[in-house]
Amino acid sequence: MNDRLLIATLCGLGLLSTTGASLPYPLLAPLFADGGANGLNTFLGLPPKLLLGIALMVNPVGLLLGSAVLGPLADGFGRRRALLLTTVGAAIGHVLTALALVMESYALFLAARFATGLLEGNGSVMRAIVIERIQGPLRNHALSWLNGAFHLGWLVGPLLAGFSMAGGITLPFYIASGALLLGAACVALSLPPAVVPPAPHGWWELARRRHAFTLLGHLPLRTLFTVHFAYTCGVAALYEFFPLWLVDVGGFDAREIAFVNTGMCALMTFTALFAGRASAVEGRRRAASYAGAAALAILCVGFGNLLLGILAIIAFGLPHAFYNAALQSWSADEFAQHGQGSVMGLLSTTFCLANIVMALAGAVLTLIDTRAVLVAGGLLTAWAAFGLRSWSLRSAHAGMKNG
């Protein structure tokens, strides 16, 4: 299969996947925090902001499980089959989400978002295909372009929500479902079936034995998990709670939130087009610099006024795109012997776990002040920058001694 056609197919599917995942973000904050009572924000008499935090958490819980097991499962049972089944399943999940909104059923909403997240944890499968099938300098560019497609989905999803909800709050989810079915058709046509040796164990046994967290038995991978987890906690704090911050500070509605998100994701997507260029600077050192810049942006939101916060939200897209390109390329080279599906699955799983932790922490902290979540996220990201820099220096000193 032509390399560029393969890259285009995967980028298109990545775009469609994150478009669906990001749809609810501009919709949920006004739905839960604008003061109007409905069946969703009055569930069991709990505080609306607490219900919002849980609603934000449940999709990453599904992503966490999906990212941990789908990569290894695809290694054993075939990547094409995995992409087709998960994409069609996610399309059904969006339909169920729309039905939950019509019924104002909070329980069904949570179940649908969980199932959708579980099936959308297939990003590690896409990255593993790129790493294994694309060779030479094009591989790093392809990884960066795939990241750009994921970032673009976070732009398209909120835009779709903001501009199509005039036709009803469920319309964006039906559109996302149809787009995912289109993506599945593209995969079926452009990604040829591969001969996969029979798996020595059933799918459950394979998932249990080879999930991404088995890599944490290796010290370098535990270090990678620790610093990347701290960084992604800061990212999750911004992603999940800047819409609520905009509602609290500026009284923004879903469409205005979508405009701000557009600026951030547009910059992130544009940056990803060239973030994969080769560099003489060691990967962890570059990632540390980008994490420091991202931390500064998040802290500016937490401590700043409305104008400074909006500018910082948008500017965050620049260092974040460079960080992803630097860390993923370095990890793919450094830990290739552990299996690319598992390594990329660990990075994806770490981000999902961070989303869960920050959704839970944020659900509590927002009862005090939404800015507290953002400040905590900025400090964690700054710690990650320090950790990556220190790790790089330790490795350099060890190499000099061994040399």
Oligomeric state, counting identical vs distinct chains: single chain
Instruction: Give the fraction of residues assigned to helices.
Output: over 70%
Task: Compute the CA-based radius of gyration.
Answer: 20 Å
Order of helices and strands: HHHHHHHHHHHHHHHH
Low-confidence stretches: none
Q: State the secondary-structure class.
A: mainly alpha
How many strand segments? 0
What is the tally of helical segments?
A: 16
Shape: globular
- Outline the biggest β-sheet: none
In whole angstroms, the N-to-C terminal distance is 43 Å
Q: State which percent range the strand residues make up.
A: under 5%
Average residue-wise pLDDT: 79
Give a description of the structure.
By secondary structure, this protein is mainly α. 80% of the residues lie in helices and 0% in strands. The protein has 16 helices and no strands. The longest helix is centred in the last third of the chain and has 33 residues. The protein is globular, with a radius of gyration of 20 Å. The mean pLDDT is 79.
